[in-house]
Amino acid sequence: MTRKEQKEERRRAILMTALTLFVKRGYYETKISDIAEAVPMSTGLMFHYFESKEELLLELVKMGAASTGAINKMDEIPPQIFFTEFLKRLFEYSAKEPWVFNMFVLMGQARRAGMPEEARKIALSTATIDETAGVIKKGQEAGIFRSGDAKLLSICFWATVQGIMEEMALNEEMTAPDPAWIVSILMKTE
Length: 190
Fold this sequence. Notes:
mainly alpha
């Protein structure tokens, strides 16, 4: 492994450790020394990778925001199939990469008042709710999804997903629900 690869691997270890600690203890309750100890490395060495705890948070929130762009890439897929397959893949990927559960929790936390403002702005800048509302509107026009405010339906859908991801982050024994259960929130009832 090259020196550059080692440095990148250590940087990733710091980020994943910080993510876990921010979720389990809270951002403000986690000290930079806690992260360094858990990696493990000296606090001084960690400052060679990240200048502050806030810089770590910003990097994580940027990662989370960057991974929210899947919705607008699915124009040709029928809406109900898109949502079902999206959730199936999300749950499968998260089972292989448990940090994804924590990322959902952190992004939810980062949106709240009281978090560092730059991180909060990034977390709030994602357009997932509006993009999902657009897909829901298409499903409504096709007679597949229930009528009503598409944005509110989108919020309900994502609140459900957020809650499931938070539960799965806290309970490693929990298995993912059937994606069809969640998509049924959107489906038109006879």
